[in-house]
Amino acid sequence: MNELTYVQKRFINYIETIMCSNKLSHAYLIEIGDSSLEFPLILLFIKMILCPKSICKVDKLNCDSCNICKLIDSDNFPDLKIIESEGAQIKKNQLLSLKDEYQNKSLIGKRRVYIIKDAEKLNPSSANTILKFLEEPENDIIAILLTNNRYHVLDTILSRCQILSLNDDSDIDDIDDQLIQFIKYLISRNDLFLYYKKIYEDMIPDKDKAKQMFDMVEKVFIHYLSSSEEKNNKFSFLSDVRKDRILSYITIIEEELPKLMYNINYKLWLDAIYSRFVEVK
Ligand SMILES: [Zn+2]
Predict the structure, then answer these.
(1) Which of 23, 186, 207, 208 could make an S-S bridge to 247, C-beta 3.0–4.6 Å?
(2) How confident is the model at residue 253 (pLDDT cuts 50, 70, 90)?
(3) Which of 151, 168, 185 is the last residue of a domain?
């Protein structure tokens, strides 16, 4: 592989962290710039997910010996499906046939993966077809959605995926003190409920604000886990928190945040997400 950029190295750090801690999500939306340069990185990630040898370090992933990796390399692995747009849109029937094909258990490996290229080309009707699939996937099915711009992807899709970026995410520099304080409360474990009133009144008084704040929290966590330590001064307060705990927090946010889109009682929702934060071992 060519010399990696800083953002690419960060991506690799992050996938190594999730694979080594065994905290794989069921759906990722990955922002990529130049797909011809960056698709090989996506394939590395997919090999880590599918290779039966459970390799979690990219530099050890020199798997010439296993049949699954060989099949992936030659584009012939039946449990890796790639959906590409037919013209300007990804059509509903493409996703229906994907669901059909993944109906039955895999006969080969422990997991299956599908890639949707240009996820911004999912229209409301084709997106609807896979929402349930994204939300309640069979345990062994992992979705990788690719886009060149997350802001062009439908909200209903975004909210169900963990978002990673191979583009520069310089807006992480705009994080304000209030968000940092919010994160400190969230990771304060048993003390979290002490700050209930303060968080509710000052920080996230309604669903919209909550969605916005937790989205940023997730972004900070992913950024922190992706970066090499010395670049993390701003988030150094996270260095006392074990990485697998941070990954559990990310999972909680991903599972709870989509519920905000339904007609739920906001305070009950807050109670639920707080309790989950407190319970993380
Ligand atoms: Zn392999």
Answers:
(1) 23
(2) very high
(3) 168
